[in-house]
Design a protein that fits this description.
The complex is a heterodimer. Chain A has three helices and eleven strands. By secondary structure, chain A is of the alpha+beta class. Chain B is of the alpha/beta class. In chain B, helix 1 crosses helix 5, helix 1 packs across helix 10 and helix 2 crosses helix 10. The chains are: A alpha+beta, B alpha/beta.
Chain lengths: ~160, ~300
């Protein structure tokens, strides 16, 4: 094992007594995940790593948050942009649960309908989306009835 | 039957579509009735459309109902900045049913969620216009004696034309075969072709509009090619007369062929076609009255 691989392994397994590790985030989405979870507003200890070597994905990002566990609703937001991310729940330095992200069948907020003539972008109202395909992600706005492909998803 | 809003043709199953068409035939047989006595319909036209509004208002009046409303948003509170939510909540206190047209897509769906009375969508931007689709289906069934297995050519603006998209989706319940005839700039969008493939519906895409196709089909559905849809005006000048139907082009068409058009027509159908018994577009518009009578009564749970 080279020095680098040793270091990376160390980084992934050390230092979190209790909390959540979000691993295998595509590097380009790391800061979007930080934003979606509103981590800039929490006072817990947070370690963020990006552009780490990954056998699986080439390059990845990782977020560790101490003493914090996320709700299913919060995690489903991540599924929208980084469905491959893995969630590890840590207690007393042990991984006690691994969660696979999955999109709900429908949700409100988080993203914006890309159609400027859609009522949801012109009326003070709560929007809503139906998930019509999970891989690749395809959403549908039930108001203007337009389908939204993964590459056109705009976060609110 | 309970009352419910009519927002999009995509909400309707084959049986529900056929039910509405069946009641429309009973209204065609007897258009003046008293079934809406004591009922008030509000026609809220945030975007003007004289033809559609008059058809809906006639439908209500011929069934004994009364109409309130506005035909231009500049005479409503929306110019003062009132939200759609507030306008709908206010009007649903007064009327038994709301018939609305709005320039924003999804406006009718949203209205149906905040209204205490049924909403009928009379057009929401380029999204849906279910009464147009119903009257197209009604006209096809009436002239062909059936809806199943119809060969239909859609001609003109297939990219932006919401009537052809909704008609395609509604007809997908009835094993049609399609010919999509349009200039390159206005071709049928990919999502509708994928939809046809997923349903096992055959279609042919053509840029030539000629008698080869006309002689094959049962229905010729013409639409307007609008100048403002073209990024390149030279392109428009090239194609504007290519998609025009002339009377002589119908000489060897099938006996049962009928020409439909959602109207208003500009120059895509020559005036001389009007006298051909195969021209059906004015009768098609008249059918709109019976279909709208059926839709209003269906939404109110009266049939």
């Amino acid at each position: 094992m080279t020095m680098n691989e040793n270091n990376e392994k160390e980084l992934q397994v050390t230092a979190l007594k209790n909390g959540t590790v979000i691993d295998h985030i595509p590097s380009e989405y790391l800061f979007k995940v930080v934003f979606l979870l509103q981590l800039e507003r929490v006072n817990n200890q947070i370690t963020i790593g990006n552009n780490l070597n990954s056998k699986l994905m080439g390059s990845k990002g990782i977020i560790k948050v101490s003493d914090r566990y996320f709700s299913e609703e919060e995690l489903s937001r991540i599924a929208l942009i980084a469905p491959s991310a893995k969630i590890n729940i840590i207690k007393d330095f042990e991984v006690i649960e691994k969660k696979v992200l999955s999109l709900p069948d429908s949700f409100s907020g988080i993203v914006k309908c890309p159609n400027p003539k859609c009522i949801t972008n012109n009326e003070p109202m709560k929007n809503r989306f139906e998930v019509i395909s999970k891989n690749p992600i395809v959403l549908k706005c039930p108001y203007c009835e337009k389908e939204i492909q993964q590459e056109n998803i705009q976060l609110l | 039957m309970s009352s419910k809003s009519i927002v999009s043709i995509t909400d309707y199953s084959k049986d529900q579509i056929l039910n509405i068409l069946d009641s429309a035939s009973t209204f065609e047989a007897k258009p003046n009735q008293t079934i809406l006595n004591g009922k008030i319909a509000a026609t809220l036209f945030f975007e003007p459309s004289t033809r559609t509004r008059l058809s809906f208002e006639t439908a209500v009046n011929r069934l004994g109902g009364r109409v309130i409303g506005f035909s231009d948003a500049s005479t409503s509170s929306s110019v003062k900045g009132e939200t759609l939510n507030d306008t709908i909540k206010m009007v649903s206190n007064y009327a038994d049913i709301i018939i609305m047209r709005h320039h924003l897509e999804g406006a009718a769906r949203y209205a149906s969620e905040v209204s205490s009375v049924p909403i009928i969508n009379a057009g929401d931007g380029s999204n849906q216009h279910p009464s147009q689709t119903m009257l197209d289906l009604y006209s096809i069934r009436k002239t062909q004696g059936k809806l199943d297995g119809i060969k239909i050519a859609m001609v003109g603006d297939l990219k932006y034309g919401r009537t052809v998209h909704s008609l395609l989706i509604a007809l997908s319940n009835f094993s049609p075969s399609f010919y999509f005839i349009a200039p390159d700039e206005l071709r049928m969008p990919e999502e509708y072709k994928l939809f046809c493939k997923s349903k096992g519906i055959t279609y042919k895409e053509l840029t030539e509009f000629d008698t080869n196709v006309i002689n094959e089909v049962d229905i010729l559905y013409m639409t307007r090619v609008q100048k403002e849809r073209f990024t390149d005006i030279m392109e428009y000048e090239k194609v504007k007369n290519v998609y025009t139907l002339r009377n002589a082009m119908l000489d060897h068409s099938k006996e049962n062929l009928r020409v439909l058009h959602p109207l208003p027509r500009v120059n895509e159908i020559d005036m001389d076609v009007d006298f051909n018994p195969k021209a059906y577009y004015f009768k098609q518009a008249q059918n709109g009255l019976y279909v709208r009578q059926a839709m209003i009564c269906n939404a109110l749970g009266l049939i």
